Automatic annotation (TrEMBL):
Protein name: Colanic acid biosynthesis glycosyltransferase WcaI
Lineage: superkingdom: Bacteria
Family annotation (Gene3D superfamilies): Glycogen Phosphorylase B
Transferase listed as a keyword: yes
Glycosyltransferase subfamily 4-like N-terminal domain: residues covered: 17-210
GO molecular function: glycosyltransferase activity
Coiled-coil intervals: none
Pfam family, one: Glyco_trans_4_4
Keywords: Transferase
Keyword Transferase: yes
InterPro entries from the UniProt entry: Glyco_trans_1, Glyco_trans_4-like_N
Domain Glycosyl transferase family residues, every copy: 229-390
């Protein structure tokens, strides 16, 4: 009889980016291997911050979906739970979103408790307090509990001043310690995050990095042809930011660099994606008269490999205090397509150390406008091809979904 797994996570397929993408691919891989997978999640809303059709018709109540796997007979049962989704997320509204999902997911866990016996229950952070639901299930049914941390949410909320009360922060860390104590395994996605989590949890942390399908995302030789297909000149140099467009990304820096470098008429800054701050960025670019900044909508998945291959430079922009707390998921795909990544990460952070060790990108100091501008100028230099090749090689050797998930299966599911 195949093992039964329960995933509790606020984001899931068909969300195209971020945690929802990885949760969806993880469960799909396990189901294809014959596992009976159940998911408690929300309706897809990210990165648009709006529940997407056709799910918007059912967003105010629960919905069940059953997806038959084309692998060895495993299947996926998805329970969608209602939650509050702000169209303009702020710190407080994000807290309300997480809390509302935790409440609706709690009732779904209660409903499932007497029904199915799951062998493994996986809780994915953020939101961190979903771990309490996994603890609840473990206490009643005895499942093995994996607590997987994609983003150190409490630290991020504190450092970005989303929660200012020291008493509230202390209480949240207390809840987190309780979850750590009851988790059979704790995992995370980068060395730096693992070190910080180990200090708090007092137990070994399993390395479970984000991955990429290196067969779907790969280098394309004719990048010049791709540029003309997207309406650019063959001599244009495309600097691309593709991903969520929110306040915490600090994307205003792209506009400032574009303003500084506007004399180079062949240098084009392309901002692709969706998010609550896109309209503000558009207005700011227009106010500055930046004809070298172009905005694209989120690209369809089937065209995404071609789209990424078109760019000469890929921007991975983070604020200084996030470099050790978040491993950007967009970087894995950039490396897979053999793209030249320009990454804002400070010396000593795990992201900086990893990129420097494998010589697979251009590193610039975070939140330093001049460093970003100088980095883009430097990116047009001679060693770009070497850095891009190193990135693809790293993706093939370390980021393949098959290799990472096989290791995960052996450590978490089989043992």
């Amino acid at each position: 009889m195949s093992k039964r797994l329960l995933l509790i996570g606020g984001n899931f397929s068909p969300e195209p980016t971020g945690i929802g993408k990885y949760n969806g691919e993880m469960i799909k891989w396990l189901a294809a291997g014959g596992y009976d997978c159940t998911v408690i999640t929300s309706y897809p809303y990210y990165p648009e911050w709006k529940v997407q059709p056709p799910y918007d018709k059912h967003k105010n109540w629960y919905k069940k979906e059953v997806i038959e796997s084309n692998g060895q007979g495993g299947k996926i049962t998805v329970y969608r739970c209602p939650q509050y989704v702000p169209d303009k997320p702020t710190g407080k509204k994000r807290i309300m979103l997480d809390f509302s999902f935790a409440v609706s997911a709690f009732f779904k866990v209660l409903q499932l408790l007497p029904r199915k016996k799951f062998d493994v229950v996986i809780s994915v952070v953020p939101p961190f307090h979903l771990g309490l639901l996994a603890v609840l299930y473990k206490k009643f049914r005895g499942a093995k509990f994996l607590y997987h941390i994609q983003d150190m949410q409490i630290e991020a909320a504190r450092d970005l001043n989303m929660i200012k009360s020291p008493k509230v922060i202390k209480a949240l860390f207390g809840l987190e310690r309780y979850i750590f104590k009851n988790a059979d395994m704790v995992s995370s996605i980068s060395d730096g995050m693992m070190r910080k989590i180990q200090e708090k949890a007092g137990k070994d942390i399993f390395f479970f990095p984000n991955w990429v399908d290196v067969s779907l995302f790969h280098p394309i030789e004719d990048r010049i042809g791709l540029k003309t297909a997207y309406g650019f000149d063959v001599n244009d140099k495309i600097v691309l930011y593709s991903g969520a467009i929110g306040e915490k990304q600090g994307l205003e820096s792209i506009l400032k660099t574009a303003d500084t470098l506007r004399a180079d008429t062949q240098l084009k800054f392309l901002i692709c994606g969706s998010g609550p701050y896109k309209e503000k960025l558009k207005a700011d670019a227009e106010a500055l008269g930046l004809t070298n900044v172009i905005f694209f909508p989120l690209q369809p998945f089937e065209k995404f490999n071609e789209f990424l291959n078109m760019a000469d430079v890929h921007l991975v922009i983070q604020k200084g205090n996030a470099s050790d707390l978040v491993m950007p998921s967009k970087l894995t795909t950039i490396l897979a397509v053999g793209g030249l990544a320009l990454i804002t990460a400070n010396d000593g952070t795990s992201l900086h150390d990893l990129v420097k060790k494998h010589n697979m990108g251009i590193l610039v100091k975070a939140e330093d406008q001049q460093a970003l501008t100088d980095g883009i100028v430097r990116a047009m230099g001679d060693n770009a091809a070497e850095l891009a090749r190193n990135g693809r090689l790293y993706a093939e050797n370390h980021l393949s979904v098959g290799k990472i998930m096989s290791r995960f299966e052996e450590a978490v599911v089989i043992n």
